[in-house]
Every structure is written in C-alpha cells, then in structure tokens.
Amino acid sequence: MRAKMTASDADQPAPAVSVIIPFHDARATLDRALDSLVAQSFTNWEAILVDDASRDDGAALAAARAEADPRIRLLHLPDNLGAAQARNHGIRAAQGRWIAFLDADDRWHPEKLARQVPVLQSGAPIVFSAYERVSAVGDSLGIVPARARVGYRDALSGNPIGCLTAVWDSARFGKAELPMLSMHEDYAFWLSLLRQGAEATGLPDVLAFYQVSQRSLSGRKLQAARATWSILRAEPGMTLPHLVTNFAGYATKALWRRRPSTQGVPAHRPHRR
C-alpha cells in the first residue's frame, strides 16, 4: 500500500474531518464526487482516496487530484479487497477526529459538512441527514428522510443511516472498523456503534445524492434481504420473535423507500450560514 504524502505532512495541523473515498474502476464518476467535496463551504477536511486495485485510469485521475490539492491523499491497495476493507484502510490512515464516508459515484451538497460539524462539536457522536436518490442521468428517484434521533433499538428494524450522509466521532468510538461482509457492512457498522449506547442525530436537510445503478434497482433485492437477516440474527441477545419483528420492519421500510409516490417529494434545503 502506497500513500501520496509529502515530507511536510507531519508538520501540518490535523484536519477536523477525514473523508474516506474508496474506489474501484470509478473513472466515470470519481471526478464529480471529488468536485462535490472540494465545493464544501467547510474547508477543514482531508480526503483519503483508497484505490481498490482499479483497472481503469481512475487511479491516475485520483493522483492528479491529490497533486492539485494538498488535502487529498491517495492510498493504493494491491488487490481488490472490497468496499469494507478499503474503507478500513482509509480509517486507519485518517488524521481527523470526525470521519465521513463518500463513495465514488455519490455527491454531497456544498453545505453538508458546514451543517454537520457544529452538531458534532456540540457533542453528537454520529450525525447524518436526509438524502436524495438519483438515477445515473440525474433524475430524482425520491427523498430518503432522516429521523431526528436514532438509537440502537430504532436501528434494528432497518438501517436508518445513509452511509454517504454520516459523520462519526473517532474520539468516542476509536478507530472503529467495518465488519468483513460482502453487503450492508455499513449497517452492521452503525449497529455496532449504536450498541454502545450512542444516539445518532439526523438532520432533515437533503445533504447528499445517492446514485442508484440498474444493478441496485433490480438485481440485488433478495441478496440485500438475506444480508439484513444475517446481520440482525447475529446481534447480541436477538431472539427469533424479535428477529422476525425487526426484519418485517426492515421489509416495510424498504418497500416504502422505493414506492413511486416518493418521486418528486420536495426536499428540505440547507439553511445558509
């Protein structure tokens, strides 16, 4: 694993937020994701790009962006290890107290970090927000709202935290890492943090844009359901009746999230500072 660093890196003050961006063959979308990060009105961040053994020229693009902006660092993984391990490599390299995730095909609103950091500074261990699901050509597929408060029990009936929207406090949880799962590892991760007695704060503003691929629309619903069942079954103290009840809650929320009537729902927009 190699990192894009300079000799003076150790002399620089630590950034407030570390943004972990894993990518694999993401040349087509990575530039747009990075543009949305660079456009943040809150500027005290670092980005850790983790090249998960890309075969396209995404790594070259990432290297060019790192060369142009000293806040951006690039790590190379020699083998394609998957999103969970790539994110964990980024977490280990993070210098900021607060850690956020941004995938290479998603985008952030320019005010995302500016809206979330004050909430983190006030003591919230996890902050997330509403987000918009969009097609590959940018058409809205609906808004996914955020609950104002989420505790462990709330999260057992389905993942309430959009990974692309969340920021968490490493001073509270340490360098926590994602479990080695092939799907929904982020859900298992949030459960592991909330299980420690933490409560996540949700903001109603749409602060991120999640690109829905054709694969995620049609081919993985059954796999996602199976992964959720396995994650819930592994939770400490989970009985069969509770497992069935919580899984039913997950299934209901999943159907609601994709209902046609969510399209065109007006979004809460961030307040300007």
User: Overall pLDDT, averaged?
Assistant: 87
Helix content: 25-40%
Distance between the termini: 40 Å
SSE ordering? EEHEHEHEEHEEEHEHHEHHH
Low-pLDDT residue intervals, each spanning 5 or more residues: 1-10, 260-268
Write the layout of secondary structure elements.
Elements: E1 2-3, E2 17-23, H1 27-38, E3 45-52, H2 58-68, E4 72-77, H3 83-93, E5 98-101, E6 107-108, H4 112-121, E7 126-134, E8 140-144, E9 149-150, H5 152-155, E10 167-169, H6 170-173, H7 185-194, E11 200-211, H8 214-219, H9 221-233, H10 240-257
Parallel strand pairs: 2-3, 2-5, 3-4, 7-11
Antiparallel strand pairs: 1-4, 5-10, 6-11, 7-8, 7-10, 9-11
Description of the structure:
This protein is of the alpha/beta class and 273 residues long. The protein has helices at residues 27-38, 58-68, 83-93, 112-121, 152-155, 170-173, 185-194, 214-219, 221-233, 240-257; strands at 2-3, 17-23, 45-52, 72-77, 98-101, 107-108, 126-134, 140-144, 149-150, 167-169, 200-211. Residues 1-10 and 260-268 have low confidence and may be disordered.
Can you give me a brief rundown of this structure?
The chain has 10 helices and 11 strands.
Summary tags:
eleven-stranded mixed β-sheet, 11 strands, single chain, disordered N terminus, 273 residues
